[in-house]
TrEMBL record:
This is Glycosyltransferase involved in cell wall biosynthesis. Residues 3-142 form the Glycosyltransferase 2-like domain. Pfam families: Glyco_transf_4, Glycos_transf_1, Glycos_transf_2. Residues 507-669 form the Glycosyl transferase family domain. The lineage of its organism: Bacteria, Pseudomonadati, Pseudomonadota, Betaproteobacteria, Burkholderiales.
Amino acid sequence: MLTVLMATYNGAATLPGVLAAYGRLVAPAEGWRLIIADNGSNDGTAAVLERHAGGLPLLCVHEPRRGKNVALNAALALALAGKEDNGLFVFTDDDATPDADWLQHLAAAAREHPDHDLFGGTIVADWAVPPPAWLERLVPLGLTFGITPPATPEGPVFPGLVWGANMAIRRGLFEAGLRFDESIGPTAGAYAMGSETQLTRRLGDAGHRAWFCPGARVAHHIRAHQMTQPWVLERAWRFGRGKYRQDCPGRFPALFGLPRWMLRQFAGEAIGLAAAWLRRDADGCFRHRWELAFLRGYFHEAKRQRAGARKRVLITSYSGELGGMELRMADEARFLTAGGYDAVLALRPFPGSPAWIRGLQERRLAVSRFAPPPVFEQWRWRRVNRLRAALFDSRTLRRLRPDLVHVAFCWSVYGATALWLAARCRLPAVISVHNTFPPDQFSPWHRPMLHEAFAAVRGVYGATAAALGHFVALYRPYLRPDVRLAVIPNCVDTGRFRPAPALRAAVRQRWQLPSDALLIGSVARLSEQKRPEALIRLLHALRPRFPALFLLLAGSGPLEPALRRLAIELDIEPYVIFAGFQQHVDEIMPALDLHLLLSRREGFGIATIEALACGVPAVATDVPGNADVLDGLSGGVLVPLDDEAAVVATVAGLLADPARRARMGEVGRAEVAQRYGMAHVQRLVHQFYEGLL
């Protein structure tokens, strides 16, 4: 079923025509309903809605708190109370009149493009009066009125170009906790524009893709008073305010908290305005005034945000490669930003990091370079490194202006240098633990510095209970008695990672697998810790019983040449797919019949919960990390680390029982959504930080 959601405030003038058009809609095969949130109207809107209630599948909710996003969230609460397992939520405005086949086009796009979660359609202008010539000639109609450029073709589109009068989003994203930001968008007074755009860009940042469907068309009513220069210039000012909200502070060199290039542009526009006025160039004057209004709005919001003094959390670690810990650090930054903090990722360069960092910055996450010399992580040159860190990197840390430093530990002392620097700068710190550490002994040279470093620590959380327990056992002599301890697991976006028959078929076709093929796979680095050679040997052991069995290895790493040689030696090379590093793992997972993670040790095993979210049963070795993740879950099975025969028997039993795999996949997805869903983990993160700053 499609659910159309709309907020209205004093919409009595436009709603009758809009609702009449809804009465002429051709219903999609899935059916549809309309939910309207009345945002405290006092102009007869309630009477209009009452008159149309009998002729439309209409539900109404009254939300007296002012704000369009507040009202839309109230409408979402009502929509999610329904029992539909699948569906599309379609958002529009109370002055947007749809074509009769509007919903049919959106429903077809959602069916035909299961790898996209966000859909936009054509928005044309419905002018109340003929527009003045200067308006169409000089004004950016898209930014000002939400009008779609007429040449926009059907196909993938930047999520920020899907606008609120005509956009559709899959229901599952809202079930996972997605909501509109109530601090932005139309309210009772002056406001920052970009409420829907902020939402769609957040989705794009999280990897969700958008599709433009030109056949899904609505006409957006433009009132006469909106065609005046004062109104348009105020709109530019509001757009500037919204743009600051969506930008990434720290991405560009700044002066007084503002990007330097914007200050230069403001000076250039002011000079241009003066020159156009002297030339009596009316068009030029207006263009410069529009740009200046936009920049003033941007500067106004920057000043307003600085006055609010958001607390800054610096997230750092000692990274050597891109893995689950680094991805979790980026999630942490997003969670903290959503919770009202100013989060900055302070990263040490590592192989492949430049491309990853560019992606983070494109998603408007603040990233800075922070690579102190390894005082704890390296024994050689430790005294020189300590001196360098104390003299230079303490100043670097202070320049980043954190109120709190979050240090992610991937191994016993990997991250301790950053913790020590935080203590030297008298900054409180928290630690997240992403692996299970063995017992260790610290040297007499390190012990006093560890006491100094851990004096700054206010809280520690582990990605699993085992990780936290091992860390506390190792560092107990150094931890303050009042330190906050918690377990906060990694998370999975169940909107992106989901069962997708179309993707399953596409992946299998891509690697030309037979129609009856069984496909087991692993998404993991090809490194010693993950034991990929065990997967090659497992395939060799299983193929006599399952001749249509294939193995897909999604990942890269130092063991790849040796694994290829092993596959040749065992005469199974044609049945092993080396897929390499995959940017969109969510497109690979649904193709698997089983996901295996036969690690020697594991911090958490994000790929396991990603597989379960895709409805794919998971098999993992019974080691700390894996055992924590699958504890109590029916969608996965633990196998002994050093018993190859037991692993073969377990996997063979699952491959031979498709009905059992289907049950495990269905139950596993529901379990993962409840325990590891992003909204749940975000709440845990916010609770952990509360009161620490």
